[in-house]
């Protein structure tokens, strides 16, 4: 098929590369001319394992192209909108770019083309896009919704081998086109209305975020009753009604999806006069959880002014260089407000921005980051961090305080090395009882 994708962020770029690998002719458009030149040269602007090599393979095969503008006459059977929908100051999704792209495509797409939203958009957006196109005289276009469910760090796998496909459609033609587009994908498909498809995306992310906030609340109770949240999670996850995924206690969720989508769904509910109390609590719990290390650091060190704190991990999760809504940046902000001196380490991220927009340098050597530190905080569970030479880390630190914000280090082992150790609701056990 002849496929057009507008937007080359995580979703658009990964989707385009994967569709090209299935044999489609794919044109990816992005307004950022510098990024387009980078992609045309085979260089990936984001870190995602395996993506750059597959990108170059499809470029060489001639199935994948990049451009800074939609062609004047877009002879494509299907066009996917994959531009950003950032949160506004009130938490609502900003659809400015979505509607701008749809209007441009409305002027250029060939008759009977399917225009589908891949971006996460509020419920009812597809219907609004259709009305806009009708007002433009484009009754010959078909509007659909095809939400994505990829995870950063495993984006290629999630796109090539998804757990399900969701097609929000209003006619048989859209269904047939989307089935052809995904012909190389082995996954069950849910055919539903556009509004239902849009809600499936939000509901999925909101439920996963709820599981994360729930286990973090359980962890906070475990810390007060001398229970081990990691074992609690294992015991809970064995129940097939619950499942073990997203039950790892830590510093909460981050990234480009969960924070934005939970806030947006709260606003969607408010727009129809419904108070989504549960999801509001999920958002509040997550915000508080990000700064959980602050309380422990204060107990250990007292006044944090002038204290050297090493933050280990800056990306919001392993396998990506994405720092959007990263717990590390939120923790860095509050520690700086307390007067602490910070060093940051990450195996992939080299530079990021503070909440004020000022650049933050990130070291590529963890042992340099912890040199003369009064305390260290594990924020991202990179294997490069989990597998550090921890006795050497202890030797290089000024004081032995270590906080494991992702529950990936064995408490007994860290204590035997000489650390004063804390984590998120996971108690220390004897070596014989460690699992």
Alpha-beta classification:
alpha/beta
CATH structural class of the largest domain: Alpha Beta
Number of strands: 15
Task: Give unreliable regions as ranges.
Answer: 429-435
**Gyration radius, rounded:** 23 Å
Shape: globular
Q: Judging by the overall fold, what is the CATH architecture of the largest domain?
A: 3-Layer(aba) Sandwich
How is the largest sheet built, in terms of strand order?
A: 3-2-1-4-5-6
* Estimated helix fraction: 40-55%
CATH homologous superfamily identity of the largest domain: NAD(P)-binding Rossmann-like Domain
Report the sheet with the most strands, covering strand number, pairing sense and barrel closure. 6 strands, parallel
Whole-number tally of structural domains:
3
Task: Give the terminus-to-terminus CA distance.
Answer: 51 Å
**Residue-averaged pLDDT, rounded?**
93
| Portion in strands | 5-15%
Number of helices: 17
CATH topology of the largest domain: Rossmann fold
Describe, in plain words, how this protein is organized in 3D.
There is one protein chain. By secondary structure, this protein is α/β, with parallel strands linked by helices. The chain has three domains: 2-192, NAD(P)-binding Rossmann-like Domain (Rossmann fold, 3-Layer(aba) Sandwich), CATH 3.40.50.720; 201-287, N-(1-d-carboxylethyl)-l-norvaline Dehydrogenase, domain 2; 290-433, NAD(P)-binding Rossmann-like Domain (Rossmann fold, 3-Layer(aba) Sandwich). It is 42% helix and 14% strand. The strands form four sheets. A six-stranded parallel beta sheet has the order 3-2-1-4-5-6, sandwiched between helices. It has a five-stranded parallel beta sheet with strand order 10-9-13-14-15, with helices on both faces. Strands 7-8 form a two-stranded parallel sheet. Strand 4 (78-81), helix 4 and strand 5 (114-117) form a beta-alpha-beta unit. Helix 8 (194-225) packs across helix 10. The radius of gyration is 23 Å and the shape is globular. The termini are far apart.
């Amino acid at each position: 098929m002849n496929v057009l994708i507008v937007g080359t962020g995580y979703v658009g770029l990964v989707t385009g590369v994967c569709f090209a690998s299935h044999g489609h002719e794919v044109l990816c458009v992005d307004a950022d001319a510098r990024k387009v030149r980078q992609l045309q040269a085979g260089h990936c602007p984001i870190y995602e394992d395996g993506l750059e090599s597959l990108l170059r393979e499809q470029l060489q095969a001639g199935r994948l192209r990049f451009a800074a503008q939609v062609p004047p006459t877009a002879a494509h059977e299907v066009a996917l909108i994959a531009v950003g929908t950032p949160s506004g100051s009130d938490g609502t999704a900003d659809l400015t770019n979505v509607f701008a792209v749809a209007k441009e495509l409305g002027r250029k797409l060939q008759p009977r083309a399917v225009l589908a939203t891949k971006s996460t958009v509020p419920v009812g957006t597809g219907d609004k896009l259709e009305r806009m196109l009708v007002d433009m005289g484009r009754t010959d276009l078909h509007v659909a919704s095809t939400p994505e469910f990829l995870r950063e760090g495993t984006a290629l796998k999630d796109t090539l081998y998804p757990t399900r496909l969701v097609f929000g459609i209003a006619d048989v033609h859209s269904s047939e086109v989307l089935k052809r587009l995904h012909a190389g994908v082995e996954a069950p498909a849910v055919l539903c209305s556009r509004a239902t498809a849009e809600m499936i995306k939000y509901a999925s992310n909101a439920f996963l975020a709820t599981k994360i906030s729930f286990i973090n609340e359980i962890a906070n109770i475990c810390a007060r009753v001398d229970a081990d949240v990691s074992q609690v999670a294992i015991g809970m996850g064995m129940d097939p009604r619950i499942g073990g995924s997203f039950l790892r206690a830590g510093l909460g969720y981050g990234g480009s999806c969960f924070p934005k989508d939970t806030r947006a769904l709260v606003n969607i509910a408010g727009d129809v006069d419904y108070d989504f109390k549960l999801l509001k609590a999920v958002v509040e719990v997550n915000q508080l959880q990000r700064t959980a290390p602050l309380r422990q650091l204060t107990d250990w060190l007292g006044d944090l002014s002038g204290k050297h704190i090493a933050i280990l991990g800056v990306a919001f999760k392993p396998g990506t260089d994405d720092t959007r809504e990263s717990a590390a940046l939120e923790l860095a902000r509050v520690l700086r407000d307390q007067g602490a001196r910070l060093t940051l380490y990450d195996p992939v991220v080299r530079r990021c921005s503070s909440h004020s927009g000022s650049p933050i340098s990130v070291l590529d050597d963890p042992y340099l980051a912890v040199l003369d530190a009064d305390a260290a905080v594990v924020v991202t569970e990179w294997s490069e961090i989990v597998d550090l030479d921890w006795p050497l880390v202890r030797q290089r630190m000024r004081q032995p305080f270590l906080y494991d914000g992702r529950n990936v280090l064995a408490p007994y082992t860290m204590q035997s090395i000489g650390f004063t150790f804390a984590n998120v609701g996971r108690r220390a056990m004897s070596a014989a009882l460690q699992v």
